[in-house]
Specification:
With 162 residues, this protein is mainly alpha-helical. Helices cover 69% and strands 0% of the residues. It is built from 6 helices and no strands. The N and C termini lie far apart (40 Å).
Length: 162
Amino acid sequence: MHFHRGYSGLGWSWQSVAMGVAVFGVWMMLEAASDTSPVEAGLAALPYWAAGIWLFFRVAGSVITVPVAEELAFRGYLIRKLIARDFENVPLNRFTWFSFLLSPVLFGLLHNRWLAGIIAGMLFALALYRRGQLGDAVVAPLAANALIAAYVHIYAKWALWL
């Protein structure tokens, strides 16, 4: 109960899901065609049950762990730290061009697909600014990553997970 106030900004909206769908679309438009991947070769070398366990944890990490960790770091901390040293007193919906542009660039540079990552970071920041809810910034990449995971499985495009 002590930290309840700190988690009050975790609400989300359907608009943040739509933002995640838009990020998925951008990611797919910028994806280079590739049919071979070391992921596919690695999975083929594993016993069926081990491949299933690996896939389970890969999806769980991609859809749950990564969006929470990245958004707490980039939208919960960095985007506000770029505004003021005392970031905890900066409202989640406080916009500055400096923080809006630098945070997504740093976010994009952490991804193999840096241009898609920068655009995604901008859209995730917009999801945060819209209502000032950190949950919106978490749900947007959760939706995008869930769609990417589904696409990878349906179309066996394992290179998306590099």
